[in-house]
Write a structure and sequence with these properties.
15% helix, YhfH-like, Protein YhfH
Length: 41
Amino acid sequence: MLESVIEFFKNLPPKNCVTCGEVIEEQHECYSNKCDSCNIV
């Protein structure tokens, strides 16, 4: 049976920064893959 979209996003694992490995404190479904410290423009 298909789970609801809300449950799908609630159950996603936390994202880790690809540079330093720190857990990214933002929505797991966002496109960013670097933390604020490593994402210096």
